[in-house]
Amino acid sequence: MTITERLMGGVPLSWLTADEWISPHQISFISDTQGTIFGLKLKAIVNDINEVEEAHRGLYIEEEKDENGVKKKTGRWRLQVEGAETEEDIASLRSALAKERQKGERLDALEKKFKDINPEEYRRLQEEAERQRAREEQIQRDTQAAIEAAKRDHEQAMTQVQSQLRDVTVRYHELFVETQLYPHIAEAKGSHDLLLPHLKKRVRVREDARTKELKLELLNADGGKLLGAEGADGTFKDLVEEFRKSERFGRAFDGYNQSGSGAGGDQGGGRGNGQDVKNPWSKEHWNMTEQGKILTAEPERAKALALQAGHKAPTGARRPV
User: Fold this and answer.
1) What is the C-alpha to C-alpha distance for residues 172 and 185, in angstroms, rounded to an integer?
2) Contact by Cβ (8 Å): 286, 320
3) What is the C-alpha end-to-end distance of the chain, expressed in Å?
4) DSSP 8-state secondary structure symbol assigned to residue 213
5) How large is the average pLDDT for residues 245-270?
6) For residues 207 and 214, is the Cβ–Cβ distance under 8 A?
7) Cβ(25)–Cβ(82) under 8 Å?
8) Alpha-carbon distance 285 to 253, whole Å?
């Protein structure tokens, strides 16, 4: 009778002779996964090897675990049976089974969720959504381009308006200066044509550092601030008077002594380089013919003379009573 037949007949392992001792591989051939060898019950795992009969202890091996690359004994003993699963194997299988069950549950849930959806209709809707997204992106690009173009146009328009405003401001100040100078030139019996270009060079427009307002500043011959009597700010009348007293511009006023004796009475030289300064808009010298001549030749002077005589404009004025 073979060893297998004897074991199958219920003969305990301890009854086998030394010549009949079998290896773990032979045991695995006649054993099941629970460590039963046809009537012989052996525990798969024991915490104390002394719990196993001495004759069977050779079938067990002490378990080891890896701690930071170092193998250490666990104190537990496991039956060596080829083909039998260990606790680690069983735990791994259970984990894999749990994952598969979870995956199946998710698939079941998705199936219930989308069971009423037509795949062709879903694909059509998805394609339509992509086209709509592309249209929205194009609209955003077009809108941004329009905004940037409008911004550029606005900046260009603002630059043009600011340039025009500067031109208007400069022209306004020029007219204002001329309006202020005309009466004083006339009062001093000077030549507007000769004096005005030079007098305007002595007027500077500057921005007030505090209020940011544009202000006129009269200058002296050295480019400094023109001062009047007792150190006060100079006036347009002061500026014209300075020109009348100067050697260079004095001859542009009536009464200038051509021999160089300075301003004085008429020495028979007539009006010199001056001009008729009688105001044709005034009550004393009202003359519509002269008004027409001055208005045609010197519109700005006409405005100044009309204002000086108390009229709002050189045209449409009525003779003062």
Assistant:
1) 20
2) yes
3) 165
4) -
5) 60
6) yes
7) yes
8) 20
The domains of the chain are located at 3-88, 170-277, 278-321
Structure tokens at 271: 């009006």
For the CA atoms of the chain, what is the radius of gyration? 60
Residue 26's Cβ-count burial label (10 Å; 0-12, 13-18, 19+) is middle
Token reading at 296:
């045609």
Please give the Cα distance from 180 to 172 (Å, whole number): 12
Tokens matching residue 268: 């028979």
pTM assigned to the model: 0.36
Cβ-based neighbours of 71, under 8 Å, separated by 6 or more:
64, 65
The stretch 13-17 carries a mean pLDDT of: 48
- 3-class DSSP assignment, residue 200: helix
What is the rounded distance in angstroms from the CA atom of residue 2 to the CA atom of residue 25?
16
CA dist 300 and 182 (Å) reads 9
Query: Encoding tokens for residue 67?
Result: 């701690």
Q: Sorting pLDDT into bands at 50, 70 and 90, what band is 140?
A: very high
178 closest CA partner among 27, 17, 305: 305
Strand-strand pairing, 214-218 and 36-37: unpaired
Q: What is the DSSP letter of 284?
A: T
